[in-house]
Design a protein that fits this description.
Length: 292
């Protein structure tokens, strides 16, 4: 074995390659791997199902969803909110009943103490005699019923009671699963992709690499092409088309309608494998770590 071989163990330094190899063999340490292009969704796929959208809709932040998937998500969140609200109201009623019962017990206790004091009025001489009699009694902390006041955590009847976790009032807002912002059903805009008509290509739409194009410039749409959605018609066009054509006179050439800056929704791009386009392209597998 040569001195500079990868598996050389004669060196005085524990090299990075040796450390990585031993970590992989031992099962300890965090494994990290860069996510490739094939592991990231395409620009025309749903952010929930990661499959091509049949009825695509887009949020005002540019995230694409399949209509069926996002409606099911909204319904699930509404059912969850109704369930949490029911539990919260039940807890609130229980707290009100306990407070009323506690106030009633306090009033009853005050009344009992008052009646007991009225019945047990004794003279000062009788109190002195009773004190003289008690002066010779035992001073043990277990006498006169004081044994019941001692804390005994090993006795089940005297262990501290575990209280139920207090529920907070649930938030009725529904948040986008990707951006985390408030999501409303009325904010979803239907999206219309323009298919590429090629009579010589007999492949199905899902198998094709180039499926859609810009309806104005006829440029092929893909993960490496920044796109935008026209809010009024739902057509997907390239950002270059928006900058060079639409922003000149703010008129949609597809139907002649007037546009504003708010009618252009930048569409979130698909996966290209480049960090400049996508965030978080590194996958990590956390495993136990050896502690010195």
């Amino acid at each position: 074995m040569t001195r500079h071989a990868r598996n050389c163990t004669a060196g005085a330094v524990y090299t990075y390659h040796e450390k990585k190899k031993d970590a992989a063999a031992s099962g300890y340490g965090t494994n990290s791997q860069r996510v490739g292009k094939d592991s990231v969704k395409n620009f025309d796929c749903c952010c929930l199902t990661l499959q091509p959208c049949r009825n695509p809709v887009v949020t005002k932040d540019g995230y694409l969803f399949d209509k069926e998937a996002i409606l099911e998500y909204i319904l699930t969140k509404k059912r969850e909110y109704a369930r949490k609200l029911k539990e919260y109201e039940k807890q609130k009623r229980k707290e009100e009943e306990e407070s009323q019962e506690e106030s009633a017990n306090e009033e009853l206790l005050k009344l009992q103490i008052f009646l007991k004091g009225e019945k047990n009025i004794v003279s000062s001489s009788q109190m002195m005699r009773s004190q003289d009699k008690n002066s010779g009694s035992s001073i043990s902390n277990m006498s006169n019923g004081r044994d019941k006041m001692l804390p005994s955590f090993w006795i089940p009847s005297k262990t501290p009671q575990a209280k139920e976790a207090k529920l907070n009032k649930p938030d009725k807002n529904i948040y986008c699963p990707i951006s985390g912002k408030i999501l409303k059903l009325k904010d979803l805009v239907p999206v219309k992709f323009t298919e590429i008509k090629d009579p010589d290509d007999k492949k199905s739409l899902i198998v094709k690499q180039a499926r859609y194009m810009c309806p104005i410039t006829h440029d092929v749409l893909g993960n490496n092409v920044p796109c935008a959605v026209i809010k009024t018609t739902g057509d997907v066009v390239t950002v270059e088309c928006v900058e060079k054509i639409l922003k000149k006179d703010w008129i949609n050439p597809l139907d002649g309608s007037k546009l504003t800056e708010d009618d252009i929704i930048p569409l979130e791009r698909g996966g290209t494998g480049y960090a400049a386009v996508n965030d978080g392209l590194e996958g990590k597998h956390e495993r136990p770590v050896l502690q010195a």
